[in-house]
């Protein structure tokens, strides 16, 4: 994948350096980003990772198997941990982070703590010998993620959206969740998407909107 195509694909995953084009593969894009060793692209890795997972497009095991050397796998893991530290800095809770952390060697917990400390103190740090600026990393996350979630307005609203994303993931499949959010935002659905929404997603929405079900669920939670 050449640099121009890579930048175009990054747009589809929330890091809009250029206008969007046809979408290829989230795993391939993330792979090209971490292989680039370009700090500017690495600053967008947490954004791309979050959006790839939100769209159900990231498969860590598949990507890790495609890497030929232990050095590449270590580099990928460090970028993942850097992303997790950034999410933790902003107190953003993604259900998939816990699953990815389980897949990483135990030693990366110390690296996560180090990255988090650097972010809190606005100190530069190294990821596989590439110097990263804490301020630029946080700035890229705020700027580009705000752009991707422009309707949310600010970071607080983004955190609320992430909470919604987590809740939706407990009820809907990735595709159902995608259609739910598209419909909620007034985005146009294809004929196939409309049929699937009406046949499957709408029924779940109607059940979730049931007042009595809300009351029973709250009562049950009070007992837990």
Describe this structure in words.
The structure is a single chain. By secondary structure, the protein is mainly alpha-helical. It folds into two domains: 3-154, no CATH class; 172-224, no CATH class. The chain has 13 helices and two strands; from the N terminus they run ααααααααββααααα. Strands 1-2 form a two-stranded antiparallel ribbon. α2 runs antiparallel to α4, α4 (45-54) crosses α6 and α11 packs across α12. The longest helix is centred in the middle third of the chain and has 20 residues, at 70-89. The relative contact order is 0.09.
Assembly type of the chains comes to single chain
Note the gap between the termini.
51 Å
Low-confidence stretches: 18-23, 150-156
One letter per element, helices H and strands E, the order comes to HHHHHHHHEEHHHHH
Task: Return the average pLDDT rounded to an integer.
Answer: 79
Label the structural class: mainly alpha
- Overall number of strands: 2
Number of helices: 13
Q: Report the sheet with the most strands, covering strand number, pairing sense and barrel closure.
A: 2 strands, antiparallel
Q: What coarse outline follows from CA principal-axis ratios?
A: globular
């Amino acid at each position: 994948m050449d640099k121009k195509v890579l930048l175009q694909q990054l747009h589809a995953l929330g890091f809009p350096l250029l206008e969007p084009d046809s979408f290829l593969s989230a795993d391939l894009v993330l792979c090209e980003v971490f292989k680039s060793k370009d700090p500017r692209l690495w600053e967008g890795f947490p954004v791309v990772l979050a959006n790839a997972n939100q769209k159900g497009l990231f498969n860590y095991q598949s990507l890790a198997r495609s890497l030929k050397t232990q050095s590449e796998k270590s580099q990928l893991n460090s970028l993942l941990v850097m992303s997790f530290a950034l999410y933790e800095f902003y107190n953003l809770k993604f259900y998939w982070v816990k699953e990815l952390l389980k897949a990483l060697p135990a030693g990366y917990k110390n690296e996560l703590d180090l990255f988090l400390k650097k972010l809190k103190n606005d100190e530069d740090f190294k990821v596989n010998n590439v110097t990263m600026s804490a301020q630029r990393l946080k700035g890229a996350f705020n700027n580009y993620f705000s752009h991707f979630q422009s309707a949310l307005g600010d970071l607080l609203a983004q955190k609320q959206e992430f909470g919604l994303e987590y809740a939706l993931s407990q009820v809907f499949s990735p595709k159902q969740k995608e259609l739910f959010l598209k419909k909620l935002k007034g985005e146009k659905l294809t004929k196939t998407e409309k049929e699937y929404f009406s046949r499957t997603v709408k029924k779940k929405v109607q059940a979730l909107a049931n007042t009595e079900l809300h009351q029973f669920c709250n009562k049950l939670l009070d007992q837990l």
